[in-house]
């Protein structure tokens, strides 16, 4: 079991995370490759965070971790956690956690 899987068992499965998707090879336009728009961040597909609640973390043979997650959406003071399950590799995203976002509304 990896440190990430241990941490998920201890703390992570009850949390809502933010994430940004990294660009993969082949996802750059010719203008971006020439750096004609040098003021734009090229590391991410989009600069707007998406949200997830992780259901399962699976260690892959190559050392990466496959995340099975529910997409989450924030509406005013409540979270809407989708029933749909999606999958993404941990190496393809930047994962963030903000404790203040866990409890919305009082």
Question: Could you characterize what this model shows?
Answer:
By secondary structure, the chain is mainly beta. It has one domain (4-101). The protein is 11% helix and 36% strand. The chain has two helices and six strands. The chain has helices spanning 3-10, 30-33; strands at residues 17-21, 50-59, 65-75, 78-81, 86-89, 93-96. Strands 1, 2, 3, 4, 5 and 6 form a six-stranded antiparallel β-sheet that branches. The longest helix is centred in the N-terminal third of the chain and has 8 residues, at 3-10. The chain is globular, with a radius of gyration of 16 Å.
N-to-C span:
37 Å
**Helix/strand structural class:** mainly beta
> Largest beta sheet, briefly?
6 strands, antiparallel
Shape: globular
What helical percentage do the residues reach? 10-25%
- Seen as an oligomer or otherwise, the chain set is single chain
User: In the residues, how many domains can be counted?
Assistant: 1
Secondary-structure element order, N to C: HEHEEEEE
Integer average pLDDT:
81
Which segments are poorly predicted (pLDDT under 50) over 5 or more consecutive residues? none
β-strand percent reads 35-45%
- Count of helical segments? 2
The tally of strands reads 6
C-alpha Rg (nearest Å): 16 Å
